[in-house]
Amino acid sequence: MNVTHNDNQIYNDKKTIVTGQQIGLLGGPLYTTYKVLGAVHLARRINGAAIYWLETNDADFNEINHIDYLDDQGQLKTLTWDIDTHGYACGYIEVDETLEKLIETFFSTIRQTEFTPGLKKMALHCYRKGRTLAEASQDLAEELFGHLKPRFFVPFDRDFKIFSQPILRKEAGRTPDGQQCNCFCMVGKQRKALFRKDACFHTRDKMTVNLAACELSPNVKTRSVCQDAFFHTDTYVAGPGEIKYLAELDPVYQFHGVKKAAVQARMSITLIEPKFKRLLKKTGFSVEEIFQFTREEVLKKAMASETGLTFNEITDNANTLTMEFLGKLQTLGLNESEMKPLRKLLQEEVKKTIGQVRSRAKGKAGQILKDVAFLSDNLKPFGKKQERVFNIFHYLNLFGGKKFIDWLYEHYDPALEMLEIEND
After folding, report:
1. Which of 330 and 12 is assigned the larger pLDDT?
2. pTM of the prediction?
């Protein structure tokens, strides 16, 4: 259900708990799910009303145009939707055949389970050619979280646009000369940065803007002000980055006379699959070690543990011995022109020999290295937190379909750092 300002009358006896996130393919990163569950969890505790704001006005397409995942071989993959967006706000971008094919590729290359066909059908139903990302994202949110009864809000909502214009015009009016405003100007479906110069306003491409006639949309500093004024927000469920910038917005709230919502941190966890526990035991690594070291460092440690060889030390020792040998040869009277080809030959041979030893060692330690790489790629993909890379579909596919959402909700706890999945 889409919320409008008029709908807020039903909240007269309820506190509104809001969370929001930029829309992303297949629901965006995992932390989006944690935000929605956090809003529902708090709303139920206090008999409030949970609202999920799907941010459709953002225009940074490169942040949302890809899906990072583990394929059926346990390898990290990235699928990228590479199109010309014409500078549209992301919510206005239409699904095309390339996105449909990208989603089909995702579902055909993940591990096939009893849940895969149904999840694929659901995703492709939401992301149909000709639909906007706003429509697809809201439909997917309904599919995943609708049974938990949050209300879904898209800022394309007409009542919100009308409501927010006075706030945004007032904010633009106090912009220092030569500075960018804390709002954007919508030119058709494009969101353009707005600047003030000599009491006039213009876009980056020097198009003159009449504030009274232009549709304005919030930026990061005014979105929460418009949101809290519109919903009379009691509490906003936020991630760590949001908590930091929201703490700096008190002067903006005070200027507009808007009561600032309380802020509650969302859950931020790393999901531990049953397979991980077996692999951790097999490899001798701990979760803490996987988190502490880079992928390359963990693989080096695994190699040294399995083979007893530390190749950095071997290389350093070999180079030292080579230079000592060459130094002794030079004492026999060889000049630099005679030494240069010999030095090059020895260094190449040493490098080649160490490479051969390394290759044999990798073959011997192949399965352990594969297992350790999988642990690192799943717990810290691309060196980032798991919740910032993977989307919820990886886990829906492996652990019960949409029922996994309910399992996550049952275990929702902002104090948790890790959560072990209980069933294979």
Report:
1. 330
2. 0.85
Cα distance between residue 55 and residue 68, in whole Å = 21
DSSP state at residue 375: H
Pick the CATH number of 1-268+386-424 from 1.10.287, 3.40.640, 3.30.70, 3.40.50: 3.40.50
The pLDDT tens digits for 382-412 are 999 999 999 999 999 999 999 999 999 999 9
* pLDDT band of 344, cuts 50, 70, 90: confident
Question: Domain spans of the chain?
Answer: 1-268+386-424, 274-384
129 within 8 A of 100, measured Cβ to Cβ = yes
Q: Is 390 helix (H, G, I), strand (E, B) or coil?
A: coil
pLDDT for 51-90, tens place per residue? 999 999 998 999 999 999 999 999 999 999 999 999 999 9
For 215, the 3-state DSSP assignment is strand
CA distance 8 to 231: 7
Number of H helices, E strands in the chain: 16, 14
Identify whether the C-beta of residue 308 lies closer than 8 Å to the C-beta of residue 324: no
Alpha-carbon Rg of the chain, whole angstroms? 28
User: Which residues does 91 contact at the CB level (< 8 Å), separation at least 6?
Assistant: 23, 54, 56, 57, 132, 133, 134, 137, 154, 156
Token pair listed for 266 = 């969302």
Measured CA to CA, the distance from residue 284 to residue 302 in angstroms comes to 9
Q: What is the pLDDT of residue 44?
A: 97
Residues 115, 108: Cα–Cα separation, whole Å: 12
- In the DSSP assignment, the letter for residue 5 is G
What confidence score (pLDDT) does residue 181 get?
A: 96
Question: Tell me, what amino acid is at 284?
Answer: G
Task: Report the C-alpha gap between 290 and 387 in whole angstroms.
Answer: 16
> From start to end of 112-222, where are the E strands?
151-153, 180-187, 190-197, 200-203, 208-209, 215-218
Residue type at 143 in one-letter notation: E
Beta strand ranges found along 240-328 (DSSP E)? 262-265, 270-272
Q: How confident is the model at residue 9 (pLDDT cuts 50, 70, 90)?
A: very low
- 17/263 Cα distance (integer angstroms): 10
- Tokens found for residue 116: 């895969």
Mean of pLDDT values over 271-283: 89
Look up residue 121 and give its two tokens: 């059908």
pLDDT level of residue 423 (50, 70, 90 thresholds): low
**What does the DSSP assignment read for 312-358?**
HHHHHHHHHHHHHHHHHHHTTT--HHHHHHHHHHHHHHHHHHHHHHH
